[in-house]
Design goal:
By secondary structure, the chain is mainly α. The chain has helices at 18-26, 29-37, 45-51, 57-69, 91-94, 97-136; strands at 43-44, 73-78, 84-89. The longest helix has 40 residues, at 97-136. InterPro entries: HTH_HxlR, WH-like_DNA-bd_sf, WH_DNA-bd_sf.
């Protein structure tokens, strides 16, 4: 949509944008990894803890609870001693797998270009800063 200087209202809003609401659900760095851990079906808590590198018990618990609250994950408790707990994606959670796989593939193909752009930007910015510093002396 073209920007007009006569526009009085914003046409892009965090509160009304469905895309930003979805990103709010999945943008936590652990969420995608936990969803990937469940992409092949039920998984026990301890196995997920081992599979997701660097996650703490506290963060895993908080993240699966959030995903459960959002309707993306379901918890299965088997009444054994001690109780056996497994997690899996709900039907709704499974609908996220394809777009997330596409985003993962985009990252595999394009992330080196992002890194290269950052290096070029940082070099140009650092070079400009040094030039400005030497001029101001």
């Amino acid at each position: 949509m073209a920007h007009s200087s006569t526009t009085k209202q914003s046409d892009i809003s965090l509160s009304n944008c469905g895309y930003s609401k979805v990103l709010d659900i999945i943008s936590n760095k652990w969420t995608a990894l936990i969803i990937y851990a469940m992409e092949n079906g039920k998984i026990r808590y301890g196995e997920m803890l081992k599979r997701v590198e660097g996650i703490s018990k506290k963060m895993l618990t908080q993240t699966v609870r959030k995903l459960e609250r959002d309707g993306l994950v379901q918890r299965h408790i088997t009444p054994t001693v001690p109780p056996s707990v497994e997690y899996s994606l709900t039907t709704l959670g499974e609908t996220l797998l394809q777009p997330m796989k596409e985003l993962r593939q985009w990252g595999r193909v394009n992330y080196t270009q992002v890194v290269d752009a950052r290096v070029k930007y940082d070099f140009a910015y650092t070079t400009d800063s040094h030039e400005a510093d030497s001029i101001n002396r």
